[in-house]
Amino acid sequence: MPEKKALLVLRDGSCFRGKGFGAEAVSEGELVFNTSFCGYQEALTDPSYAGQILTLTYPLIGNYGVNSEDFESGRIQVMGFVVREVCGEPQHMKSKEKLDEFLTRFNIPGISDVDTRMIVRRIRNAGVMPACLSVYSGREPDYGELLDRAKGLDYSKIDFVERVASRERKEYKAGGKKVALIDCGVKMSIVRELVERDLSVVSVPPRIAAKEILAMEPDGIVVSNGPGDPMLLTYLAKTVRELAERLPVFGICLGHQVIAHAVGGRTFKLKFGHRGSNHPVKDLESGRVYITSQNHGYAVDERSLPKEFIVTHRNCNDGTVEGMRHKELPVFSVQYHPEANPGPLDSKYFFDKFKKTIG
Amino acid sequence: MPRRKELKKVLVIGSGPIVIGQAAEFDYSGSQACTSLREEGVEVVLVNSNPATIQTDYEIADVVYIEPLRPGVLAKIVEKEKPDGIIGTMGGQTGLNLTMQLYERGFLKQFDVEVLGTGVDAIETASERGKFSELMNRIGEPALDSVAANSVEEAVGFARTHSYPLILRPAYTLGGTGGGVARSEDELVERMKFGMRLSRIGQVLIEESVIGWGEFEYEVMRDGRGNCITICNMENIDPMGIHTGESIVVAPSQTLSNDDHQMLRSASLKIINALNIEGGCNIQFALNQQTGEYYVIEVNPRLSRSSALASKATGYPIARVAAKIALGYTLDEIPNAITKKTPASFEPALDYVVVKIPRWPFDKMPEADRRIGTQMKSTGEVMAIGRNFEEALQKAVRSWEVKKSSLADCRFKDLKEILEHIEKPTDLRLFAIYAALKHGVKPERIAELSGINPWFIRKIRNICEMEEEIRKAGKGIYKDEVLAEAKKYGFSDRQIAELIGSREIEVRRGRKAAGIKPVYKIVDTCAAEFEASTPYYYSTYEQEDEANPQGVRKVIVIGAGPIRIGQGIEFDYCCCHASFALREEKVQSIMINNNPETVSTDFDASDKLYFEPLAFEDVMNVIEREEPDGVIVQFGGQTSINLAMPLAEQGVRILGTGVEGIDIAEDRERFRKLLKELEIPQPRNGTARSFEVAFEVAERIGYPVVVRPSYVIAGRGMQIVYNAEELNRYIHEAVDVSEKRPVLIDKYVEDAIECEIDGISDRKRLFIGGMMEHVEKAGVHSGDASCVTPPVKLSRKIQKKIVGYSRRISSALNNIGAINIQFAVQGERVFVLEANPRASRTVPYLSKATGIPLAKIATKIALGHELGEYGLLDTPKLPYYAVKSVVFPFLKLPGTDFVLGPEMKSTGESMGIDRDFGRAYYKALLGANLDVYTKGRIALSLRPEDRKHARKLAERFRSLGFELVATEGTAKAIGDSAEVVKKVSEGEPNIRTEILGGRISLVVNTPKKGKDSLTDGFKIRRSAIEANIPCITSIEAAFGIAEAIECVKRNELTIEPLRYYTSKIKGVRHA
């Protein structure tokens, strides 16, 4: 088999030639980076990465293969994968598949042997930008064509939640209390955390009406993580506004942003987002700092929040809002990922808090 | 929590001399901590017995004590200085033990001194294995079943209910000293006895073994509010059963999945919280990668070797942050010194691979057992950074300086020998793995034999395969993609040249013509997420270069590489000073070095740091990128001096003494001619380029002679031979003699006093910083000899002669900057032994003794300044004495003998300073970790030549109140009724049983000629080593110790800050 090659073209015109792995395919997405040194399987399958081409800063990827457990959804969600080196001979007791095979199976292109640090610095300086990745084995694809495709992508205009959210209800039975989980592209780890706390979970699609949820008589609502610009989810914001007046609501990541919109707040796009497993966040109420797992490109504008909301968590690096709660109502949210995967398990107390809230 | 304002004065304890298991990393952490404390306005009092440390500089601490690290001494300092707090977690196990001793004896309470940072409870729980196991059980973290045994019976009892092998670790020892594996009850009993002697509290932990499991380490920090972060995790390539200090280590871990990593990370945080650590801490885990089971193996509640490595690997200044935590700050209140914009409460993200390889001393100790295991034998380490594992590994091998250019550069007899090195690991295991792969052994098979994760073996196989491709490409490699790939895998030009039958310089030319050049990336703690303000670089073969050379006046300082016998921390000290001097001169300082333990590779020691191998290629690459105004090679020992010539050949400007002067001094033949011209006597000598000539030369000169290969480091391969038969053996066993590798033969000047000078010359004059007289007579390597300044035996006339010779030599070499000249004085005659136109290992000691920063001034002279500007005319006259003593690694190296000769064996040094020689020498010995008792029984066993001194020596010791025992010949020589004790060969009880039974406080044994581990002398010395009591092997040192004890009995030790002494020197401007 001839060696696969790959070409990555960024909207700013820069291009990177490398080796190809995964599927011979062309795809465009918003080029982002994550700084975790392990946890690539969880990241690749995290629906919040829908519409994005993921670059990992750690250079050696695929060392421990792909296993049957570390899935955050049923498939690879990224549009493309950019790494420095991909491991062809993984070693781990749980490994079932090589990274190359994994990407091929889900028809996702990957590029390796490129200066990923250079790409990251470019994104850091210029901000995230659309890019187009092509994996091929014959003639090099036309640069101009890839550039056009990159330029043609307007990430903020696409409702990626539509693409990744489940369309039907799913039930995860456990204890007596029932949680309605609004699935905007939920990571399975969130479901696992809830079920582990003996909560029965019913996941529902995001376009569901509030009264339908209320009809299920849940004890609380979780608004999940998910991809894309929260501004597009006006339909969901409306639903959440109605629910928040009646039930405990816990928002995670996109869910947190949706809650902000639901109460009249705004979000803004971060230059290059927060993606990694090392971001310090201060819990302003306890004074404690936690190392967190993050994956978000948008943040809540603190000044836009109504008086009833107080900021409970703040990012130590850039001061952005990482958590908030309503002063009286049992409505609270977190911008980062207490369910981890990948990343530190330090913030699971959010789930305990939620369980306590719904009684 | 902001800083606690009530803490105004803090005592920081250093770690003493460099020993196996405790090296330069604690100068690094201590210095960083002191700077961090002083930034907060705290007055820092620093105590250390090691003068070759940056932390004992006046720029680092407010008050410096160079005093023995003993509880009694510390108590006096505490009483005198009245600090508000004490920090012992920066000084390794020594600092930790002292803190505990001061606490236990009530001194801290008495003087109202608070233990800052991690408290005594935490230290106790983490250090005492019994308490530790208990805590792990309580918090549900799996710890191996173990018992803290205080007797052999307890140990055996535990063994009955558990299965062998069992691991033994004495409590409160460092580097696994006295620890080991017991595979049977006999071994258990023997090791138990040994271990109990070495533990401060006579306790040994006996533990189940998980030999062969993966070993992982987590560097964790916690503040007083309970915020915890992990700085980085590290994977030991060598599995459990090999001490982490002996393992090849990679950061971050390579074979852990997110779940594995988070499991161990969460356990780490749980443990550090349960222990209530306030500062840094290192946690070791054993992980079974077939089942996912793990155990917590050990916690170090302090800064450690691993934390130094983690700091350099990530860029995160652990000691700096730990010091701030000790003052009360929380992690989020401390800024990240690298990014300046983000707080210290984050976890570094790496976008490169770091490989660390230990540096073992077996080149100097060929008789030592090369096998590696649970006890440390390495003296230092190298670190390399790359964007892939292969690159980092090959760069580390290149940095190693073990006279091997690549992994392929090691010869084995046959595959059987290769597999033996893999299965029963030695320092050569890495080479053996490579050789096995070349023999076609499958990676999986090697993994099975070694316990090493196959992932690593396959990576090494990649290197092997690339080697084949390079060979295949041959001279056509420049047109090929192979060259670029080879460079990405870390192959050096020299390796490639060897493989394609070319020369390094040609490959370099061809490679550059093909447009293949390294780029430099930044170590920024955050994988480029934020802009870094600290320029800490490594090279790799990729696209974007971040070096950003500035168009300012700049100079590159070439470092000294790994700490090893013969080239220790002294040289790193000098390199740091060169950098500091450049800064003072407003010249941009650029450091190149590869040692992760030292201050020179600290992120702010220089304006720019290149963490690179010190091979010609890597250094030249940096020079081409930076285009400095000059390069300084006179501080990095033999490592940098060896680069002078190849760099100069490329037109690089060497600052200070030129390559011509260096060559004359290094080339024995040219040096001989020079001395002849200068009419300066030298021991008769000659050069032999064949066996026959060697015998002729030796006959002509007359035995005994000192023989050695040309271009030596620290007496390597050097030996004194007394007759033709010994010469025959030496020449056939120890060296290659050839046209290109001549053997040098010098007359051994018997019964001479050796002495040396360290000086600085500008273009006009030589300033002699001091004259150092050796305590042992000539023939002991100057690095192993104790020495005193000012001299005590040399007459004024002799001293004058030495000064005169020194001036003539320095001027003839056109020396600019540092110079060291060694002499042997026999009666009225002064012989020059050697001249080194570079900073020697005594520069830090002499700088501390005189208060004159010699290396700094030498740097400024090299930049064009003159001595007069610093008021340096005559040698300063010291109204006190400073003695340097040394420490030996024999205890850690089974099979080695305590015999000193022209081969250097010591690992580190201490300094004692006091009003008279006796007390200064006594302090130096204490500082060198010797327990010199002022009463008890002394065992004497002298060789026939020394017995003429026996009576006098015996009288000296008796008048001091000692009892004496002696072996038969010596007892006869003493003449009276000295108690006779049997030699080991004469049956029991004998001198060995007396020593091991704890009934002897000092051994004087002067060894017979010739090395033989079967002699009685060897057994006596080995017993003393194992009993951890001083063993004096020269008659001069024996008299010296008698004088020391006498002085100490007569007067109290003077415990005063260093400045108390140096301020007494007249006419010298102090730094």
UniProtKB/TrEMBL annotation, chain A:
The keyword Nucleotide-binding applies. Residues 1-177 are annotated as: CPSase. SMART domains: CPSase_sm_chain. GO terms for molecular function: ATP binding; carbamoyl-phosphate synthase (glutamine-hydrolyzing) activity. Keywords: Amino-acid biosynthesis, Arginine biosynthesis, ATP-binding, Glutamine amidotransferase, Ligase, Nucleotide-binding, Pyrimidine biosynthesis. It comes from Fermentimicrarchaeum limneticum. The keyword Secreted does not apply. Pathway: Pyrimidine metabolism; UMP biosynthesis via de novo pathway; (S)-dihydroorotate from bicarbonate: step 1/3; Amino-acid biosynthesis; L-arginine biosynthesis; carbamoyl phosphate from bicarbonate: step 1/1. It is an enzyme of class 6 (ligase). GO terms for biological process: 'de novo' pyrimidine nucleobase biosynthetic process; 'de novo' UMP biosynthetic process; glutamine metabolic process; L-arginine biosynthetic process. The active site is at C253, H337, E339. Composed of two chains; the small (or glutamine) chain promotes the hydrolysis of glutamine to ammonia, which is used by the large (or ammonia) chain to synthesize carbamoyl phosphate. Tetramer of heterodimers (alpha,beta)4. Belongs to the CarA family. L-glutamine binds at S48, G226, G228, L254, Q257, N295, G297, Y298. Small subunit of the glutamine-dependent carbamoyl phosphate synthetase (CPSase). CPSase catalyzes the formation of carbamoyl phosphate from the ammonia moiety of glutamine, carbonate, and phosphate donated by ATP, constituting the first step of 2 biosynthetic pathways, one leading to arginine and/or urea and the other to pyrimidine nucleotides. The small subunit (glutamine amidotransferase) binds and cleaves glutamine to supply the large subunit with the substrate ammonia. SUPFAM superfamilies: Carbamoyl phosphate synthetase, small subunit N-terminal domain, Class I glutamine amidotransferase-like. Its EC number is 6.3.5.5. Transmembrane segments: none annotated. This is Carbamoyl phosphate synthase small chain. Residues 4-134 form the Carbamoyl-phosphate synthase small subunit N-terminal domain. It catalyses: L-glutamine + H2O = L-glutamate + NH4(+); hydrogencarbonate + L-glutamine + 2 ATP + H2O = carbamoyl phosphate + L-glutamate + 2 ADP + phosphate + 2 H(+). The gene is carA. Pfam families: CPSase_sm_chain (PF00988), GATase (PF00117). It comes from the Archaea.
Automatic annotation (TrEMBL), chain B:
InterPro entries: ATP-grasp, CarbamoylP_synth_lsu_oligo_sf, CPAse_ATP-bd, CPSase_dom, CPSase_lsu, CPSase_lsu_oligo, CPSase_preATP-grasp, MGS-like_dom. Residues 1-401 are annotated as: Carboxyphosphate synthetic domain. The gene is carB. Mn(2+) 3 binds at Q822, E834. The lineage of its organism: Archaea, Candidatus Micrarchaeota, Candidatus Fermentimicrarchaeales, Candidatus Fermentimicrarchaeaceae, Candidatus Fermentimicrarchaeum. This is Carbamoyl phosphate synthase large chain. Belongs to the CarB family. Mn(2+) 1 binds at Q284, E298. Its cofactor is Mg(2+); Mn(2+). CDD domains: MGS_CPS_II.
